[in-house]
Amino acid sequence: MTSTTTTARRTAPGPRGVPLLGSLGPWKRNTAEFLLGLQRDYGEIVRMQLGPFTVHQVSDPDVVRHVLVENNGNYVRGPLYEQFGVVMGKGLLTTDGEFWRGHRRAVQPVFLKNAVNDIIPNIIRATEEMLQDWERKAAAGRPVDLMADMLRLTLVTLSRSLFAYDIRPDTALLKTIVDDVVEVMFRRGVPTEMLPSWVPTERKRKIARIHRVFDRVVTEVRRSYARTGEGPLIALMEQATDPATGRPWTHQQIKDELLTVYLAGHETTAVALCWTLLSIAQHPHVQEELDAELATVLGGALPDAASAERLTYTKMVVDESLRMHPPIWIFPRAAVGADTLGPYDIEPGASVLLSPLVSHHNPRHWDNPLAFDPYRFTPEAIRERPRLAYFPFGSGPRQCVGNYMALLELKLIVAMINQRFRISRVPGTSLQYGSPVISLRPLQDVMVSVVPRERGAAPRAASTAPAAGTGPATDGTTPAADGAAGTADGSAGAAGTAGEQGAAAPAGEGGGTPPAGCPHHP
Ligand code: HEM
Questions:
Q1: Distance 499 CA to ligand 1 centre (A)
Q2: d(CA 17, CA 53)
Q3: Are 336 and 363 in contact (CB under 8 A)?
Q4: Is 393 in the pocket of ligand 1 (CB under 6 A)?
Q5: d(Cα 272, Cα 498) in Å, to the nearest integer?
Q6: pTM, entire model
Q7: Which of 305, 432, 444, 512 is positioned for an S-S bond with 517, CB 3.0–4.6 A?
Q8: Residue 22: how many CB atoms within 10 A of its CB?
Q9: Rg, C-alpha atoms of the chain
Q10: DSSP helix/strand/coil, 354
Q11: 506: Cβ–Cβ under 8 A, 6 or more apart, which residues?
């Protein structure tokens, strides 16, 4: 697939839309349903008009690979990413070319597979703190706001691990700031935005508040680093130089990148944790198999780097959760020059939309895509699938820099919570995506009850672990199950790598293409 100058243009199929607006109406009403419907009705390469933008949704794995990997040089962030810049300035997520390359090189070392094991003590400490709070809530019969707790947990872990900064006093404030970030980046086009730039508006007030808060955080992080020399990522940022000027990064560069990592790194992982824990609670056979692995691999001990490697079923559960509920469920690119997507031509400037959610529900590669089945991620099953049928972390040079960190956190936190607690959804709590804007977080608060499995038996450090098989008893309360489980295909083994993988075939709940909102949870 290379650039083409053919005169007879081959245009991908897609909805006609209405004059001027194109398909903006159905896009705004329910974006997830609309995009899933496009794949169902038009196939794996679909052309649509969204106001002034010509957009191609691609879910054919070969074409996804073409855009993200093989011809990635022809694709930049583009206009659909511009709104991120309002908050994140010029950071890894929002820039391209040499500027991006220099920054990626500078921060990459702390995110490499071997380096991320250093954060294990921080993951364990923050999770322990949360679980102690859960003990108190359980004893008092109080429910837990799962998404809020996961956000706090991932934020505290990230901040301590990368910046050696205790962000706990700010977590409540930062939760409202993250809500503001989403709002100011995506609620544009309201009439007040047409006013002259000097007129104060609610949106401008919120943008100013976001920057005030992050100015303070970055100043405190830098001061603390100057005092202690601690924090592996802030250390790299303080030592980095700009390849264009040879000068150290400016305060603004450090602030933009710090903000990018805080925002990109904690909410995504929290969303993934939330869906993974709920999926386990809804599938008793998954819970049972997970319990068996935790007992065999960990005994009653806390996980460490070595035992985490052996949590192969836990990893498969996480992989399947990231398939069904990919936290970053769409992301765009813009073509610099003309190109072909499969058999179709696209013009310079055309936007391309990659959707892990749509690709991960493509019935050509995922049998019964609505069934939750961790056995889709055995090494054999992965080998049978095209790699880019699955890309929760993107792919190619712009693949998520934090993917190993996220997977490590997910595995350890899921293991620690399940060693100690049973979770069940408080009746009446509904789970819907709604029209998600950035991440696929549940639309409403998710209230769960947490019940300790074995009172008074907190896991020991790994060095004091007993022989396998003597771990926590599996006599916890039965979790709520509001959907039949997908059946496993029986093959066992380690899960695949971060990022991209390939397909297997269970049977179970639902089937076909998912409907509106969150298709899996009533
Ligand atoms: C389950 C958790 C996570 C998911 C699903 C996720 C997903 C993604 C995806 C899909 C992209 C690629 C976007 C694109 O190509 O346009 C991305 C990029 C990025 N992610 Fe993550 N992410 C997660 C966790 C993290 C963590 C823990 C960090 C940092 C601590 C992080 C930092 C970043 C950054 C800085 C980028 C931009 C990379 C670049 O363009 O060079 N993410 N992430």
A1: 10
A2: 12
A3: no
A4: yes
A5: 14
A6: 0.85
A7: 432
A8: 21
A9: 23
A10: strand
A11: 367, 368, 371, 373, 375, 376, 486, 487, 488, 489
Give residue for tokens 């890894």. 92
Report whether residue 264 contacts ligand 1, using a CB cutoff of 6 Å.
yes
Copy the structure tokens of residue 312: 């192969």
Domains and CATH numbers, the chain: 24-464 (1.10.630.10)
Are 272 and 322 spatial neighbours (Cβ–Cβ below 8 Å)? Answer: yes
Nearest-CA neighbor of 82 among 333, 398, 350, 353?
A: 333
Model ipTM value: 0.99
Which of 400, 405, 440 most suits a substitution to test ligand 1, by most atoms within 8 Å of the C-beta?
A: 400
Tell me if 247 sits within 8 A of 303, measured CB to CB.
no
pLDDT digits (tens, 9 = 90+) for 44-101: 999 999 998 899 999 999 999 999 999 999 999 987 777 788 788 899 999 999 999 9
Q: Is 95 in the pocket of ligand 1 (CB under 6 A)?
A: no
Binned at pLDDT 50, 70 and 90, residue 366 comes out as very high
CA of 301 to the centre of ligand 1 (A): 31
Nearest to 385 by CA among 323, 311, 435: 323
Q: Supply the pLDDT for residue 4.
A: 44
* Ligand 1 mutation pick, 100, 268, 319, max ligand atoms within 8 A of CB: 268
Tokens of 514: 């998912």
Measured between alpha carbons, how far is 243 from 261 in angstroms, rounded to an integer? 21
Give distance in angstroms: CA of 231 to centre of ligand 1.
Answer: 20
pLDDT digits (tens, 9 = 90+) for 24-34: 999 988 888 99
